[in-house]
Amino acid sequence: xxxxxxxxxHLTHEGFSTTEIAELMKISVRTVRRDRSAIRKDHAxxxxxxxxxxxxxxxxxxxxxxxxxxxxxxxxxxxxPFARLWAEEAIVRNYQRLIDTAHRxxxxxxxxxxxxxxxxxxxxxxxxxxxxxxxxxxxxxxxxEV
Length: 146
Hints:
Blueprint (H helix, E strand, L loop, with lengths): L1 H12 L4 H8 L3 H15 L5 H27 L5 H24 L6 H11 L1 H19 L5
C-alpha cells in the first residue's frame, strides 16, 4: 500500500489527474482519492511556533543572500547601467518582502505597540501622557472643544 501511495504521489506531482492515475495504475478512482487523502494527512503540519521561527529564519537567510548578490551586481562597473538600476530596485523589493513577511507573522511590532510600551515604561513619557489625558478630560467636562 505504501508503494502504491508513493506512485500516486509521484504521478500527482507530475500533473496527472485522478482518472489518469487510476487508469495507469489499474486501480479505482476511489482508491486514488483515498491514497491522496492519506498522503495529505501524512504531510499535514500541526501549528508549531518553532516551525514558524525556522521558516522565517530560512526566508531571511535566502533574502539576505539574494541581496548580497544584487549588491555585487549593482556595484560592478561591467554591469550595464539599466541592470544596476534594476538590481538596486530589486534590493529594496527584497527588503520590503522580508519586512512584510515578518510583520504578517507578528515578528515586528507596529508603531502603536512601541509607543504604548514607551508610554508605560518611561516615567517622563507616562507623566506627559497623563497630563495630556487630564487636560482633554477637563476640556470635555467643561464643555470645551478638544
